[in-house]
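Support reply, case 0932

Customer input (verbatim):
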Amino acid sequence: MADGYLEQHQRDYEARKEAWLRKKKHLPTKAVRKLQRPDDEAL
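Our regenerated output:
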């Protein structure tokens, strides 16, 4: 293998990871919906 093969792949991986984390930070989070239960449990 060529010199620096693993180092280059490690740098590529780190760059992809950084891009993924930056994109993930800006994605909107899913809103948690609470189901409304009736006050009378007999219904």
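We compared this against your earlier run and they match. Two observations from our side: Helices lie at 5-26. The CA atoms of residues 7 and 13 lie 10 Å apart. Please reopen the case if you see a mismatch on your end.
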